[in-house]
Amino acid sequence: HCRRLARPPHRPPPSPFGERDKQEVVANARPPMSAEPEQKRLCKRQRTDKLGGNSLVRERKSEGAMSTNSDGVADMMADVVVDEALHSRQIAVYGKESMKRLATARVLVCGMRGLGAEVAKNVILAGVKEVAVQDTEPAAVRDLGAHFYLLEEDVGKNRAEACAPRLQDLNRAVNVRALTAAMDEEMVSNFDVVVMTDIGSEEALRFDDWCHANGVAFIKADVRGLFGAIFCDFGPSFVVEDIDGEEPHTGIVSSISQAFPALVTCVEDERLEFQDGDEIAFSEVKGMEQLNTGGPFKVKNVKPSSFEIECDTTAFGAYSTGGLVTQHKRAKEL
């Protein structure tokens, strides 16, 4: 007969160090070779937060309709709240200015078939102020395979009224409502953007002419199997806040001279990507605080880790420490 022997419990080998020796080893442990000075790591973290990292700070700006002045700059009224924790990924793609505009936008989506429902879904998830879905037709069996917001029991009901509650569940922060009346100019006048997906060419031209004359952004979209078409009319002109969609170039300041032009030197381990003629803005500079509120400043004589600014700093306080420099992008009217 074979007898299975029980395996004794595993015990780690005894440490060659006593308890006191282990405490001394931990206390005398050296930091990793890749550790950076505290000031440099702090500057990098502050720069990341400024570029739209996981900041939980909410910005309060103005609420209401946007107006464009003679310089083509979009003005906002008071009290728009942009939740950076909720929209951090969208801010990284769209930018803060676009998110502020989205937060006040009222959008009308006409036609609740497959394309209209998809447009409404994406706009609601983007976090606009209000979305109205409009349709005059009842849901048919074939509509059930076009999107996820109609069920079998909705057949025979108005498509907009049947879709609205499920679209609302996507984002409770957006006001979603259904419109079942025929579309006319009075209805369109209550919105900033109108998207038409189920409309003929002649009627689309009539609404486009009215929207163009009354400052309402007009979009007509259509799909035919694997092919799609879209027409956009945003008025006589519109302002592009970010002309290239790239993250603004940045640098960590290490010194600034008191001269004209002033020489700005940045840390050497990060090559500057500015070009002559670019505009930059300063923040968190200590000693020469006048630069934090001035600008933007035009740069010239750009080197891998330094550049000059067209600013006389001889009367400014002496540079002490800190500072971030960020590329300033000017809006462009098209």
Automatic annotation (TrEMBL):
Grouped into one coarse class, the protein's main location is: nucleus
Task: Tell me where it resides.
Answer: Nucleus
Say yes or no: keyword Secreted present. no
- Pathway participation: Protein modification; protein sumoylation; Protein modification; protein ubiquitination
Compositionally biased tracts (Basic and acidic residues): 37-50
Q: Which InterPro entries match?
A: E1_FCCH (IPR032418), E1_FCCH_sf (IPR042302), ThiF/MoeB/HesA (IPR045886), ThiF_NAD_FAD-bd (IPR000594), Ub-E1_IAD_1 (IPR042449), Ubiquitin-activating_enz (IPR035985), UBQ/SUMO-activ_enz_E1-like (IPR000011)
Q: Where is the composition biased (Basic residues)?
A: 1-10
GO annotation terms (biological process): protein sumoylation
Query: What are the GO MF terms of this UniProt record?
Result: SUMO activating enzyme activity
The UniProt keywords, alphabetically, are:
Ligase, Nucleus, Ubl conjugation pathway
Stretches the record annotates as Disordered: 1-70
Domain named Ubiquitin-activating enzyme E1 FCCH: residues: 261-329
Q: Which residues form the THIF-type NAD/FAD binding fold domain?
A: 87-231
Q: One Pfam family name from the record?
A: ThiF
The record's GO CC annotations read: cytoplasm; SUMO activating enzyme complex
- Report the family membership: Belongs to the ubiquitin-activating E1 family.
**The protein's name:** Ubiquitin-like 1-activating enzyme E1A
Tell me which species this is from: Prasinoderma singulare
